[in-house]
Amino acid sequence: MKAPLVKIHRLGFGIKGLDEMLSGGLIEGTVSAIIGAYGTGKTNFAQYFIWEGLKQGQNALYITLEERTSRILNYMENKGWDVSAFLDTSFTIVNLDPSDFNLAINSVKNELPTLIKKTGAHRVVIDPISLFEDLFHDDATRRREMMRFLESIRDLNCTSLLISEADKTNSFISKYNLIEYLSDTVILLKYARGSDSTDVHLAIEVVKMRMSQHSREVKPFEIHQDSVIVYTEATVF
């Protein structure tokens, strides 16, 4: 007798085309990464992930190492979202200053897991994880500490989304070519140029997704003030 299939619980972005590419969304309890160059919409996707959770009654935690809390709120409210209704109840934003090495390391490694437990966060965003990676001065230490950190996050029964800068010379990999190996799911955002090199489009690809089938096609997408549209029926040049 075959063992019954275990139902996989997923957390969607609320972006139809992307959720289709992910077979419904990110797998609950996993660590995922969005990698992209500047201007490709990484933070946009992260905020949709947070907002979709809030609408479903899930607690959300947004860790920003780059933007002020007020700017994060402004970005979300400009999309027409009433995020103020969730502040201090189910939505928590924490700004960490990565300029002080010891403080930033201790805050992320030691205080973040405690904060996730305290807030009961179902969805966690760290934007950008690249600044945390910058704190380590050699590849061996960076890999070891990142592995330990992500394993501690996996143990907390939350679904995490890490925002990562693309490498300056190769937009298909992250800055340190590390987070894609440590994450369960990797979403790549990139620019695509037409044959005449004058038209520039945005494209999305699910490069990797453990424990699940997913689309392996590259699809164009557009970012509007109040929506993100992934064109799953279209093709990229």
Automatic annotation (TrEMBL):
Protein name in the entry: KaiC domain-containing protein
Pfam families given for it?
ATPase
Q: In which organism is this protein found?
A: Methanospirillum purgamenti
Q: Which UniProt keywords apply?
A: ATP-binding, Nucleotide-binding
In terms of PROSITE patterns, this protein maps to: KAIC
The answer to keyword Nucleotide-binding applying to this record is: yes
Domain spans labelled KaiC: 9-237
Question: InterPro entries annotated for this entry?
Answer: Circ_KaiC_arc, KaiC-like_dom, KaiC_dom, P-loop_NTPase
Q: Which SUPFAM superfamilies match?
A: P-loop containing nucleoside triphosphate hydrolases
Whether Hydrolase counts among this entry's keywords is: no
